[in-house]
Specification:
The complex is a heterodimer of chains A (322) and B (101).
Chain A: E1 3-11, E2 16-18, H1 19-23, H2 30-37, E3 41-43, H3 50-65, E4 74-78, H4 89-97, E5 103-106, H5 112-125, E6 131-139, H6 149-152, E7 157-166, E8 173-181, E9 185-186, E10 207-208, H7 210-232, E11 241-244, H8 249-259, H9 270-273, H10 280-290, E12 299-306, E13 308-317
Parallel strand pairs in A: 4-5, 4-6, 11-12
Antiparallel strand pairs in A: 1-7, 2-3, 6-7, 8-13, 9-10, 12-13
Chain B: H1 4-12, H2 16-19, H3 22-41, H4 61-75, H5 88-100
The chains are: A alpha/beta (322), B mainly alpha (101).
């Protein structure tokens, strides 16, 4: 059985950080950041936790879907920046919204939302769920080194969520890819203080080989979209909206040009949000949904890519259950 | 990952016998890199010498990756990320070395 998107929600912290704000403590400026990333502002948590963002996005999606928390059969949270290693962010959300279903986190970095959709699809397919909440929440501001301009300027905090219902035509296509490559993009876990541990203690920040990531991202988007069109039997021109992971405007521009896509059909939210890892795609979906830009029957391609390295692409048919 | 090598040699006439005559190959590759820079990045070919860095031609670090990708397409090769070329001449050398592998 397939699913349909019943409702969307999102949440962002209140504090807006401009490029000028960053230039006060980093050797950079608005022109440098804008031209290389397309980012003007991002939101950064001050008092908010990752769970706060997840909860707010989840509540908004439940409200938008008209679904009560008690009706949920499953909660999947995609995150790489949960407040705690355990319990999961999903468990915290379950408690706070008052649900009673199973809940777990999933880590597929910036492609986490699309991986989570595929996991949810499995539950629908075997008839194990009728209502699933997928929430992607990221507090990237705690992961980056704020003394390092090449990485910190790229990221922001936020969350996006969808409530999925059994029945419908989504997904029309899904492909998940993992090309294991540790050193391209990585962030170490907690160190602990074991007296027995003799392994190296790398800096506790996100490490990135930017040029390699750029090339991987552009190549992956292009090959995934081409393969999706071929296997789903659609033309790129038939697709109403492309929601790519918002890693860098230059990555999206490059892929859009290589694929020859109509720019009006490609969502860009990076300018005011930066890279929010797995939250980018659902947050963008919610933004467009609330602007009334998603209509019944629209074909929506979502494609995420990130650390792993991972790529995940899916084709949704927007609208209600059949 | 490089099954295209033979095909490219046939398509461009840069076979093993010609690759030994470095001058010919170098100038041919240089002209094609100039073409990539002109068509993709609006760089005036008259201003491009083997000593030109991409930065001096107005390209930033992400443009450099784009140049790598477009050269890969132009020459039907995969360029090693670690080679990290920065001057046009270094690009030509990396491409010729990759073609010669």
């Amino acid at each position: 059985m397939a699913f349909h998107v019943m409702g969307t929600g999102s949440a962002r912290p209140e504090h807006v950080v401009t490029n000028d704000d960053l230039s006060r403590f980093l050797d950079t400026d608005d022109e440098w950041i804008s031209s290389r990333t397309g980012i003007s502002t991002r939101r950064c948590c001050t008092t908010e936790t990752c769970s706060d963002l997840a909860e707010a996005a989840a509540r908004a999606a439940l409200d938008n879907a008209g679904v009560a928390a008690g009706e949920l059969d499953l909660i999947i949270c995609s995150t790489i920046t949960a407040d705690d290693l355990t319990p999961s962010c999903a468990a915290v959300v379950q408690e706070r919204v008052g649900a009673s279903c199973p809940a777990f986190d999933l880590n597929a970095a910036c492609a986490g939302f699309v991986f989570a959709l595929d996991v949810a699809h499995g539950y629908f397919a075997r008839g194990a769920a009728k209502r699933v909440l997928v929430v992607s929440a990221e507090k990237m501001s705690r992961m980056v080194d704020w003394t390092e301009r090449s990485v910190s300027v790229l990221f922001g905090d936020g969350a996006g969520a969808v409530v999925l219902g059994a029945g419908g035509e989504s997904p029309l296509y899904t492909k998940l890819t993992t090309r294991g490559s540790h050193d391209t993009l990585w962030c170490p876990n907690m160190e602990g203080n074991s007296p027995f541990d003799t392994t190296a203690k790398p800096e506790p920040y996100l490490h990135m080989r930017g040029q390699e990531v750029f090339k991987f991202a552009v190549t992956s988007i292009c090959s995934d979209v081409r393969q999706m069109c071929s296997e789903a039997g659609v033309e790129a021109g038939d697709i109403d909206l492309f929601v790519f992971h918002q890693a860098n405007k230059r990555i999206l521009d490059s892929a859009v040009e290589k694929l020859g896509l109509d720019r009006d059909k490609v969502a860009y939210t990076i300018q005011e949000s930066g890279n929010i890892s797995s939250a980018c795609i659902p947050l963008t979906l919610d933004t467009l949904n609330r602007q009334g830009r998603l209509r019944e029957g629209d074909l929506v391609c979502c494609s995420g890519f990130g650390a792993g390295l991972v790529v995940a692409t899916t084709l949704l048919k927007w609208g209600s259950a059949l | 990952m490089r099954p295209l090598g033979t095909k490219v040699s046939q398509a461009t006439g840069i076979g093993p016998e010609r690759r030994n005559r470095e001058g010919d190959t170098m100038s041919d590759t240089l002209e094609r890199v100039k073409k990539v820079l002109q068509e993709g990045f609006e760089v005036d070919p008259a201003k491009v010498t083997p000593e030109s860095t991409l930065a001096s031609l107005g390209l930033d670090s992400l443009d450099t990756v784009e140049v790598v990708m477009q050269c890969e397409e132009e020459f039907g090769i995969e360029i090693d990320q670690e080679s990290n070329p920065s001057t046009v001449g270094e690009f030509v050398t990396v491409i010729d070395n990759t073609l010669g592998e």
